[in-house]
Amino acid sequence: MNYYIDAFRNYVNFQGRANRTQFWMFILFNLIAGVILFGIAFAVPALAFLITVYNLAVFLPSLAICVRRLHDTDRSGWWILLGLIPLVGGIIMLILYLLPGTPGANRFGGCGCGCCGEENAEQ
14, 24, 26, 59 — which has fewest CB within 10 A? Predict the structure, then answer.
């Protein structure tokens, strides 16, 4: 749950790195919240607008954590635009998100484990 909350704390932070655990835990909690909201909207159709409100609320945190995940693999955040390619864009992005991060520091910062001489291991 801390990973999900941390993504909201860093919702405008497009600097630094997000490891696979941080990224996929955010995606998992986002999926769980979406399923719960879909269930509520299915049971009470008048509350279907909650799905739109939630999607708007998580747009920037989702974008930021995706960019930080790409930074962890030593790629620029602009690679996220590959996701706009129909059909294959989503597959390419999934593969990039599944790749392991670069060990140690890269051009986007330390690895987050504290081994790179960084002051703050939490990102």
Answer: 59
Greatest Cα-to-Cα distance within the chain, rounded to the nearest angstrom: 53
- The answer to whether the Cα torsion of 110, 9, 68, 4 is positive or negative is positive
Domain boundaries of the chain, sorted by first residue:
2-98
Q: Tokens 């129909």 label which residue? A: 86
Tens digits of residue pLDDT in 23-41: 999 999 999 999 999 999 9
Please give the Cα distance from 56 to 29 (Å, whole number).
Answer: 16
pLDDT digits (tens, 9 = 90+) for 71-104: 999 999 999 999 999 999 999 999 999 999 988 8
Give the residue from 26, 19, 50 showing the smallest Cα distance to 113: 19
Q: Which of 9-18, 58-67, 94-103 has the lowest mean pLDDT?
A: 9-18
| Contact between 50 and 37 (Cβ < 8 Å) | yes
Tokens of 23: 């990224």
